[in-house]
Amino acid sequence: MSQEKGDVERSSRWISTLLGALPDLIFRLDKGGMILEILSHGDPALFGIVEEQLAYKKVDELFSRSIARKILATQHAALEKGETVVTRYRMNGGKEEHYFEVRIRPEIGDGKGNRRNSVVVIRDITDTKRSEDYLHLIEKIFEDATEAILILSGKRNHAQFNDAFCQMFGIECFEELGNSLEDYAGFFSEETFALIRETVSRHGGFHGEIVIHRSDGSTLSAWLSVDNVYDEDEEEVFQVLMLTDISELQESREMLRFTATHDALTGLPNRRMLLNHIEQAVQRSVRHRHSGAVFFIDLDNFKDINDSMGHIAGDAVLIECAARIRSVIRKSDIFGRLGGDEFLLISEEIKSPDSLMHVAQKIIAAINQPFYIGDLKHHIGASIGVAIFPHDSRDRDELLQFADIAMYRAKEKGKNRYQFYSSRLDDKVRRHFMIEKALRYALDNEGFYLVFQPQIDLSSEVVIGLEALLRIDEKIAGPLDPNEFIPVAEESDLILKIGRWVFTRCCQILYRWRGEYAVDTLQISINLSRRQLMDGTWVQFVRQQLQRYEIDPRRIEFEITETAFMQSERTGYRNIRRLQELGCKISIDDFGTGYSSLATLKEFTVDKLKIDKSFIDDIAENSTDRTIVKASIAMAHAMGLTTIAEGIETDDQKRVVKLMGCKEMQGYLYSKPKRPAEILRFLERMNRKKK
Questions:
Q1: DSSP codes joined into one string, 378-400
Q2: Element (H, E) at 14
Q3: Helix or strand or coil: residue 339?
Q4: Which residues, 6+ apart, have CB-to-CB distance to 126 below 8 Å?
Q5: Are 531 and 303 in contact (CB under 8 A)?
Q6: pLDDT in tens, 390-431
Q7: pLDDT band, residue 450 (cuts 50/70/90)
Q8: CA distances from 645 to 596, 613, 658 (A)
Q9: How far is Cα 85 from Cα 74, in angstroms, rounded to an integer?
Q10: H or E element: which one contains 534?
């Protein structure tokens, strides 16, 4: 017995020691909820109680009402079932919440099936609960992620993938696909998979754009990330693959790339792309020893359609022109739009210059076919400049410039033709470019100014008007004669902007003179180009400026050259009538140099004919000039028009035109063109002389 008693005592001490080492709160509980014995108390403060309070107290005295009810209900279930029952509860413990697990197991009964007592084990599971919550969150993210995720574990013979992975690869989620990276090689090209495998092997991961070959045979662009996950011993545990569908991104990139390299209107390659093609074509021509050519194509008279019919009609013509040119060139040729009405053709491996000639002729013939806009038929032409590479140059920009120079030469020869580049063209066209650049600079930097030349009544020798003449500041491009820079302006759209500047400046000067110098009777003559006449917004602009500066329209006279007048067509004639309706006067400049129709002159009831200086220069000695001038004056008188002779420089010239009946004159005999301040002083002298 003593031996048995010793064994029992040792076992009891061993069990007591074991229970004392546990962090749990363990106690015996009778059926009525009384704590009979504390077997282990762990850290009582953790459970919100003090040790001395435990023994022989009821559960509802030690725990909150809700927790006590949960413990007693769990005990009741355990005693009824005769097995362990588990429950959980949450308790606020200062700054953070704690979670507890309650395990209640009935004690062995009295042999008759009666169980009165139970053992209660309460364990802090806060860390476990947080881990469970975190794992649940990870699982939720894994399943709901739009990115395709695949987790591989070769050692554990395990592969896990989400719904997005199945959708991206076009597979069923219940399929067995393998647990190593090699098992997924079929979803990639051999080259791509070899790159992925090598990169993962060397660097432990892969990140880059790839193409997936889906199960249905289609492809999909994706961003793939492969990362190896290691344990504490630096052994690989998992391999995680994440894929993001970038198909829409790729489409956006392609669209942006296309937009950056193609013309929005025609869809043709734009200037940027064409320049790259020239450079590549030149390199190939040098490498393979063949020749190529650059065709610079500029549409003739296209601006007339734009000005008269509007930009929508102009855009339609550009699209049609692009289609026509495309139809007559080789498929291998590069054809694009530089901008505006300018196109560029790059042709490689040409057999002879004759073949280039034939290409240019076919383009011109295609463009010469009529264009129908609504019920109206329009005709335009094409001026083409051709530069040959590498013969003319191996430099991209220089080739483009040479083709441009040749194109301008074609325009100078009469338009609607082609011209091959030669060095002889260079100096003349460079001068043209320099002038155009100077004009643009002058517009942006107040580089223009006006001078005025008096117009004199021959009978009274009184100043009755002033002609406004445009000049450009010599500081911009040196001395430039108007006879040189005005034609350059008229060939481009610059004349429209310059014309508006001239008219506005004249209105400003008239407004100032009226207020400061009481000059309010003079008439100002302003030159008007054909392009301005064809501008559908010109008359409205004139009306606005006249109202803004409170100018009497009768003080404005627009001078239109005889040729421009006769070529104005419907839009120009309509604008002339509208200007006359405003109250402005119209005069025909350079009369006798063109081919005016007397019927047209009568229809418009122009106010004045201006006899060109070329007939005045030798009028005192040349009988032919005298006959022409005399006939012109007689015709004007018959139609009720005033005549003015320009370029009068001598008393003999003045005497002859006065005898012929000319009413007015203008020329160096009285005054050269002068700045506003100088012309005011001239007017004062003339007034004093008259008195």
A1: E--EEEEEEEEETTT-S-HHHHH
A2: helix 2-21
A3: strand
A4: 97, 98, 99
A5: yes
A6: 988 899 888 998 999 899 888 888 889 999 887 665 666 667
A7: very high
A8: 18, 7, 9
A9: 6
A10: none
Query: Which domains does the chain possess?
Result: 13-126 (3.30.450.20), 145-250 (3.30.450.20), 262-421 (3.30.70.270), 489-669 (3.20.20.450)
The single-letter code of the amino acid at 37 is E
* Cα-based torsion angle of the residue sequence 497, 502, 506, 509 in order, rounded to the nearest 10 degrees: 90
| Portion of the chain with pLDDT greater than 90, in percent | 26
Longest CA–CA span in the chain (Å) reads: 169
Residues 6+ apart with CB under 8 A from 470: 448, 450, 482, 486, 498, 502, 527
> What pLDDT does 363 receive?
95
Q: How far apart (Å, rounded) are the C-alpha atoms in residues 263 and 259?
A: 7
- C-alpha distance from residue 476 to each of 434, 446, 447, 448, 492 (Å): 11, 10, 7, 10, 19
Residue found by looking up tokens 């110098």 in the block: 517
Residues 6+ apart with CB under 8 A from 303: 341, 493, 531
Query: Looking at per-residue confidence, does 241 or 491 come out higher?
Result: 241
Structure token digits, residue 159: 């592969």
Residue in this structure with the two tokens 């950056």, named with its chain if needed = 260
Q: Are 314 and 302 in contact (CB under 8 A)?
A: yes
Give yes or no for residue 279 having a pLDDT over 50: yes
- From the list 388, 427, 389, the residue with the least C-alpha distance to 408 is 427
Q: How far apart are the first and last CA of the chain?
A: 163
- Dump pLDDT digits (tens) for 183-217: 888 888 888 889 988 888 888 788 888 888 888 88
417, 418, 423, 426 alpha-carbon torsion, rounded to 10°? 50
The mean pLDDT value for 549-560 works out to 93
More confident residue, 199 or 686: 199
Length of the chain: 691
Give just the sign of the alpha carbon dihedral 573, 576, 580, 586. negative
Dist CA 542 CA 450 (whole Å)? 18
Residues near 630 by beta carbon (within 8 Å), at least 6 away in sequence = 660
Total-model pTM: 0.49
Which one, of 503, 516, 605, lies nearest residue 551 by Cα?
503
Q: Which residue has the higher pLDDT, 273 or 162?
A: 273
User: Cβ atoms within 10 A of the Cβ of 47, count?
Assistant: 22
- Contact between 335 and 273 (Cβ < 8 Å): no
Please state, in angstroms and rounded to a whole number, the distance separating the CA atoms of residues 621 and 618.
6
Cα distance between residue 573 and residue 581, in whole Å: 12
C-alpha–C-alpha distance, residues 226 and 185, integer Å: 14
The mean of the pLDDT values for the chain is: 83
Which residue type sits at 359? V
What gap in Å lies between CA 650 and CA 670, rounded to an integer?
9
Distance CA 643, CA 607 (A): 9
Tokens matching residue 485:
């820079």
Residue with the larger pLDDT of the pair 201 and 155: 201
pLDDT digits (tens, 9 = 90+) for 144-154: 667 888 888 75
Mapped onto helix, strand or coil, the DSSP state of residue 429 is helix
Which of 125-134, 274-283, 638-647 has the largest mean confidence? 274-283
Which DSSP symbol is given to 34? B
